[in-house]
Amino acid sequence: MFVIMGTKEKNKETGHGEFFCPACKVTRHYIKYESAPYFSLYFVPLFKLGSEKKYIQCQVCHNIFSTSVLSQDARRMSLLAVVNDLENELKSGTPSHVIYHKLVAKNFDENLARVLSISLLGNTPKVCHKCKSYFHERVNLCTNCGASLADNSDVTFLEEKKAADKILKELKG
Ligand SMILES: [Zn+2]
Ligand SMILES: [Zn+2]
Question: Tens digit of pLDDT for each residue in 59-87?
């Protein structure tokens, strides 16, 4: 009788959730897997030979990542990258509400989208009194309607900005 022995890689699904995919650069669904080499007899895995390897897979681009992309630090780094991009867009004249909708479309939590879209407007954000758009402090003309911008001195807005600044500071760590 001929006995077939060997090793076989066994994958098992151990969880799932949302993460910031470094390849897609947006929030995506992931599945977490554990794989370990098994001793097999007649192609049936019998016992584990080595230690498990954990990895996660983005369900959209199907790229494989180490589970470290789920860590607090990795999340902070991806947030910082997003913040940097948004800040540049705002500085180049994109109105705050456009950034907000963009973030929501990228599956960002609505509260976080709101926080980012107003806390990244600089220290003295501008407002267009004609079309009610909010802009970064560096912008002088409304890219929406062409009117001149004024300092945004609306009390409710400034209160919200103060709260948003605080949240962003905590998120940046
Ligand atoms: Zn992806
Ligand atoms: Zn305007």
Answer: 999 999 998 888 877 777 778 888 889 99
CA distance 43 to 24: 37
Q: Is there a single domain that holds both residue 58 and residue 134?
A: no
Q: From ligand 1's centre to the CA of 56, what distance in Å?
A: 11
Alpha carbon separation from 84 to 72, 78, 89, 92 (Å, rounded): 18, 10, 9, 13
Distance 127 CA to ligand 2 centre (A): 8
> In whole angstroms, what is the distance from residue 117 CA to residue 127 CA?
13
CA of 61 to the centre of ligand 1 (A): 4
Q: State if pTM tops 0.70.
A: no
Give dist(CA 106, CA 60) in Å, integer. Answer: 13
Last residue of a domain, one of 70, 87, 106: 70
CA of 93 to the centre of ligand 1 (A): 29
Are residue 108 and residue 161 in the same domain, yes or no? yes
Q: Determine the structural domain holding residue 13 and report its residue range.
A: 5-70
AA identity, residue 15? G
